[in-house]
Design brief:
Helices cover about 10% and strands about 25% of the residues. With about 90 residues, the protein is α+β, with helices and mostly antiparallel strands. The protein has a single domain, classed as Double Stranded RNA Binding Domain.
Length: about 90
């Protein structure tokens, strides 16, 4: 079952960087979600979609995937770009 290794991006609504240093291994969905006829909620019988493993580094995540024979795709962390501006820039 294929999986994806990535770092969680910073929340755009908050200034803190909590939980952005962990590397996550997330499995790809095995089947498509379909609406439940009674409630209308989307769901599937795929329980692997609920599993997200956390690692301290990318190397640890890759080692785990290699040890268990999981094919992985590593998504690189996008660079963080700061938009530095002063309060006076709001009125230009």
């Amino acid at each position: 079952m294929p999986a994806r290794i990535y770092q969680r991006p910073k929340n755009a609504m908050q200034s803190g960087k909590a939980r952005t240093h962990d590397w996550l291994l997330e499995f790809a969905p095995a089947e498509a979600k379909k609406p439940d006829p009674l409630t209308g909620w989307a769901g599937s019988g795929d329980t692997q979609a609920q599993v997200i493993l956390k690692f301290a580094s990318e190397a640890e995540a890759r080692a785990y995937a290699d040890r268990h024979g999981i094919a992985v795709h590593v998504t690189p962390t996008p660079p963080r770009r700061l938009k530095l501006q002063s309060y006076a820039d709001n009125f230009r």
